[in-house]
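User: I'm curious whether this sequence folds into something compact or stays loose and floppy. Could you predict its structure so I can see for myself?
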Amino acid sequence: MKIADFLNASAIADNLKAKSKNDVLAELTDTIVNTDKSLDRDEVIRVLQEREKLGSTGIGDGVAIPHGKLKNIGNLLICFGRSHDGVDFDSMDGRPAHLFFLLIAPEESVGIHLKTLARISKLLKNKDVRQRLLQADTASDIYSIIIEEEEKL
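Assistant: Here's the prediction. I'll summarize afterward.
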């Protein structure tokens, strides 16, 4: 099980414009809805906001991994976003988030959801990987970096 198994190259927003947590969630939702038209945008946003109320998914080091579960989806969906300016995401370290992985999992899934969260976290713990993602020129470059670096895990 790899991130690349669920991350579509077209589900990368390399220049998020959002200035707030809720706007990031909406912009990432738009990105993932564009790759899977069966998703209900409002439902995805609601699930993500409910999860954020339990505690921020901003894990620190400029990284946030918003996630939630939905009924009636067949498999895990992932999108990636990057904010050059950074967004206050109530992260554990108090610093803005620049790199975002959004995960939407089937409601009944447990194992794959948690394994993917752990894999993303492990990937982004590496300072060099974070730096490469921040400095990448295009969404295609970001996708390539994720694929390449994941092979090293």
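Summary: Residues 3-150 form a domain with the Mannitol-specific EII; Chain A fold (CATH 3.40.930.10). The radius of gyration is 14 Å.
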